[in-house]
Structure formats: structure tokens, C-alpha cells
Amino acid sequence: MRKKEALLPIGIAAAVAALAAALVTGCGQVSAKSDPNADFNENAENLILGLQQYKEFTGAYPVGNNVSITRALMGQNEKKVLILSIRQNDLNDKGEIVDPWNNPFRFYFSGDEVLIRSAGPNRVWEDDNLPASDDLYRSTLTGRTK
């Protein structure tokens, strides 16, 4: 038994050393030149999952504008439900959840469906039917994206 107890600190030290080495070498980090469209899709998917969890715990989607929805997801709601789908670096100085181009997301809810929109790289809200539109969206309806 004492032999196992003596090996435990060595195992912990090895795990800490491996973690430190990974952090120093950048192992597992995303490249600084990541794809903003892929980032949008990942962030929107995480937000949709978070919004669905919020509804499961509270019985309804959060209401209001981007700031109100952000606050609700961060635990400022009647039931004190905290959803961990928002990182601090996903927020602008107004407290809005933003896309990779620092544009506030727009949220739409209908029944059990969620739609998240981004103005895209040109930062202008456009008619989605226009061929030149670069607006992006993600929906629970069909998982569709643009």
C-alpha cells in the first residue's frame, strides 16, 4: 500500500508537467488564422444548444433583445439557471453576444425552433434572397446554415 501512496505524487507531477508542456508548446490550440465562418457555425450551434437547455430548465426561451438573452443565459433569470455556452470573449462592451466580426447576433424564436443570424463579414443586415448577401444563420428547424 505504501508503494502506491508514494507513486501518487509522482503521477500527479507527471500530469501537471504534461499539461504545462502542452500549454507552452501550444498543443491543441486553434490557429490564430481560424475560419470565421466555421467559428460562426460552432458558436451558433453552441448557443442553440444552450438556448434549448435553458428552455428545458425554465420552461421557455429567454425573451427580449440580445442583452436580455445574454443576461438570462448568464444566470440573471428568475430561476437562476446558468448556461455555460457563452465565453467572455464572445461579448462586446454592451454585453451582447457577438459573431466573429464583432456584430451582435439576432435571435428569433418560434415554438420549439431557434434561428440565430449574423450580419456576416460586411457587417450589414441584408435580404437573404439577394445573391450578394453574406448574412449567416443557423437554425434548429433543419440544422440549416447559410
Task: Walk me through this protein's architecture.
With 146 residues, the chain is of the alpha+beta class. It has a single domain (35-139), classed as Glycoprotein, Type 4 Pilin (2-Layer Sandwich), CATH 3.30.700. It contains 3 helices and 3 strands. It has helices at 2-25, 36-58, 66-73; strands at residues 106-110, 113-118, 136-139. Strands 1-2-3 form a 3-stranded antiparallel β-sheet, covered by helices on one side. A hairpin with a 2-residue loop joins strand 1 (106-110) and strand 2 (113-118). The radius of gyration is 20 Å and the shape is globular. The model is unreliable at 7-31 (pLDDT under 50).
Q: In a few lines, what is going on in this structure?
A:
The chain has helices at residues 2-25, 36-58, 66-73, and strands at residues 106-110, 113-118, 136-139. By secondary structure, it is an alpha+beta fold.
Tally of helical segments: 3
Largest β sheet strand count, sense and barrel closure: 3 strands, antiparallel
Radius of gyration: 20 Å
CATH class: Alpha Beta
User: Helix and strand string, N-terminal first?
Assistant: HHHEEE
SSE diagram, text form:
Layout: H1 2-25, H2 36-58, H3 66-73, E1 106-110, E2 113-118, E3 136-139
Antiparallel strand pairs: 1-2, 2-3
Write a concise keyword list for the protein shown above.
single chain, 146 residues, alpha+beta, Glycoprotein, Type 4 Pilin, three-stranded antiparallel beta sheet
